[in-house]
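Good morning C.,

I know you're traveling, so I'll keep this short. The sequence:
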Amino acid sequence: MISGLRNIGKIPELQKRILLTFLLLAVYRVGAHVPTPGIDTQALAAFFEQARGSLLGLFDMFAGGALRNLSVFALGIMPYISASIILQLLTIVIPHLERLSKEGDAGRRKITQYTRYGTVVLSIIQGFGIAVGLENMAGPSGLSVVISPGWAFRLMTVITLTAGTAFIMWLGEQITERGIGNGISLIIFAGIVARGPEGIVNTMRLVSTGEMSIFFAVFLIVFMVAVVGFIVYVESGQRRIPVQYAKRVVGRKMYGGQTTHLPLKLNTSGVIPPIFASSIIMFPATIANFVPHPWMKAVSGFLQPGQAAYELLFVVFIIFFCYFYTAVVFNPVDVADNMKKYGGYVPGIRPGKRTAEYIDRILSRLTFSGALYVSAVCVLPSILISRFNVPFYFGGTALLIVVGVALDTAGQIETHLLTRQYEGFMKKGRVGKRR
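The tokens, ready to paste straight into the viewer:
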């Protein structure tokens, strides 16, 4: 790994990409501390201190702490993710969008443009809901969070938060095109990791005051390392289907005849299902949290982490999106047709339809196992916070994102190294590839 890091310095293009990624992420973190005008930040921070462990605390984690002081990036990237979910669902039911998705780069650019428009619309809706809700909020001392309530404050908040989300969306696209890794995922990753020092400080404070024993703190550290190791182990797990290619004679040369494999990951959908599930639950729950109506307050109470309704919905959405996103990114029929086209077949299985059914059956079983694994990890924070009073979110969507994005980014860096015949991070294989 050390030699792999040294080899990064031998590739100027890779150095520029990594440096640009860090600079754009630094811009995002600076913007997360620029407050929206008209807010009493101290009263708002006191309110969020009471909301630790609630859905607002979870939303603040995704925003990288930007919601706590209502910075210009308070909405984070969640409106973009929500818009992406809506567009992917509409692609199945609207023929025009389905045709665009099959038109290659031009169609994908058009869908991306629709996603941007949807992001702006959702940001306006959520920004207005937050502005109205802030006017009805007060800190523990009874001080109002908003200095001068009214339509001027609401319009200013909507414009500021919408512009902030649009800027984050642009940052993510720039990181994807000119940096390393998926820009949107890296932005969420940076926001989550930035909360790490605060969790460490809170844990040390609890230990120093006697609210948490030193033995439990040590156990917690060991448990965290074990969970991270387990996630890395599962995320790199694969089911390899053997594929044999028949020999072909082209002119005077013979091609094919080799044996390879089709790798199917245990968690094909990655971190997308928990992100999508969190986004769907957060949107109505956040609006309900800010609307002073008894019925909406009851909805907000049911959709709090730790509540049975929230956890059940969360698990159901995760399982649904595991299957949905796997079906979007992996089509067994296309894979089987391509194998048949180039003379490939699975030993003991007829090419074509039988091969597609065989791959689909294995993929369905893997997806179910992966969905159960993701669901188990995602309910971990609620157990730790409600049962053991852990002063930070550990596990769940946050941990899956951190580990998944770290593995994906390391894999992309290693790809740049290997394409230039330099030694990668792992001498015996690529990052994230385990049988």
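Safe travels,
E.
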